Amino acid sequence: MNEPKDRNNHEKVVDVLNSLMVTNNDRVEGYNSAAKETDDADLKITFLKFKSNSEKNKEELIKEIQFLNGEQSDNTKLSGKLLRVWMDLKAALAANKSQAILKSCEQIESVTIETYKNVLEKELNILSIQQKTMIQNQLNVINENAEEIKLKHQIEEIKS
């Protein structure tokens, strides 16, 4: 299927793919929290769609990790947990709840994009062509999601 260039790199490739798993785990949890916090039906649909995108990313990553006989990570980062707590607190205290939630979602997207770009820039030499393509395709969708979040945030700012 998607053999790394050098069989000795299996563990490193699994570690890299697991870093993306953790990032997507954070994203799933973040958008789940955002969907619960918002009273706006349109935003709720958007957040659940983005959660679903990350669940799809995780499925692709799991298949690749299993192919490499690795174990996938079900962890989240402490920074992701703190961001979700901060999102909950800001939403509870904010005059404009939607704006506060969208600002937190922009932060989630920023961290996610940075993680994906780092993998593509720094780990390029150990990834197979198929793995690079999968990661780039996931990043493309995440970039589209980030643009949508940014636009919704700007609209919320205009409303208030």
Instruction: Please name the fourth-level CATH homologous superfamily.
Output: Ferritin, core subunit, four-helix bundle
What gross morphology would you assign?
Answer: elongated
Low-confidence stretches: none
Q: What's the mean pLDDT score?
A: 85
| Helical proportion, percent range | over 70%
CATH topology: Ferritin
- Total count of helical runs of at least 4 residues: 5
The helix/strand class is: mainly alpha
Q: Just give the CATH class.
A: Mainly Alpha
User: Strand share of the residues?
Assistant: under 5%
Q: What is the correct CATH architecture? A: Up-down Bundle
**Tally of DSSP β-strands:** 0
- How far apart are the termini? 51 Å
Q: Main beta sheet: strand number and arrangement?
A: none
How many independent structural domains? 1
SSE pattern: HHHHH
What is the gyration radius calculated from CA atoms?
Answer: 17 Å
Descriptive report:
With 160 residues, the protein is mainly alpha-helical. The protein has one domain: Ferritin. The protein is 80% helix and 0% strand. The chain is built from 5 helices and no strands.
What descriptors fit this protein?
160 residues, Ferritin, mainly alpha, elongated, 5 helices
Task: Give me the secondary-structure topology.
Layout: H1 10-37, H2 41-67, H3 78-93, H4 97-122, H5 129-159
Helix pairs in contact: 1-2, 1-3, 1-4, 2-5, 3-4, 4-5
